């Protein structure tokens, strides 16, 4: 079925993929489909789009999208078409049975960082109110959770960027740690280019000389898993060279002595031995960072996806605090969140330990507030559940069923073969998706759901900018929205009210649930977003007239302007001071040895997005990046007798992956790199280690020990 444009006019909307949430226009194409047109007025990307965004409409009318529910036949064991009634009845029946036989916590729910705010909110409410289960988490746990935990710990609040992207070109120096944004979010590269054009300097920290690192004034290439030691070494030098900001430390922080002592135990020469980064480069970095009047540290998945990710980000935050580079104009620490709604997706209650408004599930006042909005007894709300990997690991054990929306863990989870085996061991698996993903292939029921351009919803980009993503085309018959799915299931499970299908109604409830919380959306409404300038509103945005019944921004109400810049007056901690946390270097969960002598690090490529469930099904993207590869240094390749293009097997203690070698001197000679977007024999996550960060429960995607073998590709 081909999607047809709802109107010939241009609909101002946003890309379905990454957290930049580039603005775009959609209009009727000449061939009957929809076309992307430039929307230069949206400030984040000013009309620029990467290939993923430009080709996003292809999946709307793709032959491979799902347009009818599928259920697994008891007779043949195969997925066969079914009616919506049959599919929803089957899911509701299984959820009821399992809950009755094994208790509510035997029902698991798994969400995604690509779900709109409304869907994330409704999914969390569905789990806690309808199922009464604590067993809900989402794939954002695999994305930026370490940065979120470190931000909460230091500043009392986590918003990816506490300042808008437009501040980046106006600062003096940026240290970009573990981000290849030239490939992951290309339109954002201009902020770094403009920084350098304005006389600022760019330092990139990455074990690979990526397209982003090539833009840098200084590229530091540490051994994977040692970013924490690197940050400690820089802080040591800051102290030793008298570059601390004592007045800032005194007036706006607490805990400096402990952090200082921890850093002083990491001598630069020692740090050089751990990281492989020469001391003169450490000194250059300190000079560039401290000479600038204002400077920033931005992290992404490199330092975050480690079993010490929270402490690693904490070490970079300590560097900012010690030099007075936080809570001041054009300075600070920020995280470049990855998934489309990675920011909003973590604020509205699909996380194992959180309620809407970014409230803690263990806080009695938060429970009481949200319970009142939901019309339930606070004591009926379950407590925190397992984190994403722990939940997946428990499938088939005490968790018997799983309802999964917006995620493809067969490709994206660590130790993926084990996760796949756990999914297969479930009593019952239900998946809502737009295509038959590798995870959906294992399901007992697959529900075909609407795509971004076929539904309206809000998303919150990496700056904390709440945006209205508008419906531009009608969905094919046979497809329903995730909100419709939750409504249908809730009704069958005795909760007919409380799960509206209309996203605006859901958002109205979300506003009330978030009111007074850290991520306060109560001053934002669909009307305000619809009538506004299209640039969105930054949270926190409290309602200046709560209970007035008036629309924020409507006649007679002075709207809260939103908060583009956080912490300028004080941090969000109880005493308003940012907290230093003493952190020390520790080894990765798995070090190299004689059997597994090489480090593996994983990441992304320009033409694919996350598990590739969508982008692998777009011809243009698939041609540009048709499969995985193993990037390795010529010295390593020569030692093993591996030629460029030859099949190479990468073997870890958890599995084996085979892909063509890409021999390049742009990577450290002790490290190989694999992108993780593909399933099958080239699945990088067959190799990765599920060791978890003790605070964020983030798995160690970025470093594990492997060996390489020449291989025949099957
Ligand atoms: Fe979409 Fe991100 Fe590409 Fe922008 S950078 S077009 S949001 S994938």
From TrEMBL:
One of its GO terms (cellular component) is membrane. One of its GO terms (molecular function) is NADH dehydrogenase activity. Residues 8-64 form the 4Fe-4S Mo/W bis-MGD-type domain. This is Nitrite reductase. GO terms for biological process: respiratory electron transport chain. InterPro entries: Asp_de-COase-like_dom_sf (IPR009010), MoPterin_dinucl-bd_dom (IPR006657), Mopterin_OxRdtase (IPR006656), Mopterin_OxRdtase_4Fe-4S_dom (IPR006963), Mopterin_OxRdtase_prok_CS (IPR006655), Prok_molybdopt-oxidoreductase (IPR050123). The keyword Metal-binding applies. Keywords: 4Fe-4S, Iron, Iron-sulfur, Metal-binding.
